[in-house]
Amino acid sequence: MLSFYELQLIYLVAFCLLFLLVERHISRRKKEVVTLQNGELAAPVPSGGTGSVLAKLTRQYLTVYGIVMGADWLQGPYVYSLYKEQYAFPERLVALLFVTGFMSAGLVAPLVGVWADQHGRRRLCLTFCITYTLTCVCILFPYFPILMLGRVLGGISTSILYSAFESWLMSSATSLVLPNSDLSSIMGRATLVNGFVATGAGVLSNQLVSITDSFASPFVASGIVLLLGWVVIKGTWTENYGSGGGTTTGGSDPFQFRRLGQSWKIVRNDPQLLVIGLTQTCFEGSMYLFVFNWVPFLQEASADRVLPLGYIFSSFMISMMVGSLFYTSVVSYYTPSDAAPDRDSPLVLHAKLSSLVCATSALALAVSISSQAEHVRFWAFCTFEACVGLYYPVQGMLRGTLVSNEHRATLSSLFRVPLNVFVVVSLLTGVSSARYMVLTASSLMLMLSAITTGATLVDHASEPVQLQTDREA
What we know:
The protein is built from 18 helices and no strands. It is mostly helical and about 475 residues long. It is globular and about 60 Å long.
């Protein structure tokens, strides 16, 4: 007989497939309406036209994105269990390992962005594959200093993963003069692909642990996948840079303090970018704290039995896919057209979605804190993961609209500094007795972000074009 979590995974997969059909129907109807409004025949786009360019960029990016995110997700279900259960470290040392990773990410984040803009996004993505593979090697040794080194390398790798890859896509789309609607489509598909590979990674990691009876086996598989990612990036991606990139001018200023100062001045003088940074800090900080807390939270509510962490993780990833499909459906349906000119502009729509994501995730965390029932906590966590699926394409589009290409990777990494400070401070207190307090603070911060986003981005949505022009001047 199937267990509760196996049944929930089946139900979620069925719901996701149904939602996928609905999303395809909405997208197809929207394309038909646009075709009729433009008086165009439904003829295929020439092979050398925009359609083939978009298809090539989508294939290049999603292939690499799926590989590197799959490698990352393979480690997801068992990081905590490996440290706590197999290596038998006390929870405070486990928290210290997590803190080390986030401190490393926070310290190197602004430099990662500068180096990506200056020396090339592709080059830094290749570096990511090497450093994250070394992280997987270090975690195989139950010796605390080596594990600490692995967390340092993991923090550096995480900073690259969440800045350089997106910056490469944005810059490539800009150089190909692709419209925002095409970029939105790629980012929506990226989140969907992320959900698919994460779900597969969760099931695979569960099977690897069952076969090998070791929580370390998914990390070996992750290292192999990362080496594959290095080969694919090397063979399919071309290089792109930020302002002044590809030159030797950075030699006299290897840490690029001047460029960091310029980027900070841009953020400080723009309330919209400050709000984007606040949202990133609150949401991604809560997400990383969730990674540390979801296993003990469910174990606490589930009496004395062993949880199938791989299946639970896969359920979370299916929920993330549902959030991604909801995003693409909403964007397809509410895109302004001649037939409905009164609909929200893309920026207003994404600002509203950002506010909705933060508010819903705040409520989900609040429910998980207030309830002691295992099944309620599980579904609250699934709701939070659905918000994660919405967050990434929404936040990516807001950054793509409001942040100019010349400082894109630098600003994306700069936003990660307060994020990592928030996570480090929370983890330093967020063990055992303080766990509830940490998630309560996360819920309150998310609600603050929801209110701030609604009050700032939505009200100032008529200014983005001018702001973007000013930044590039």
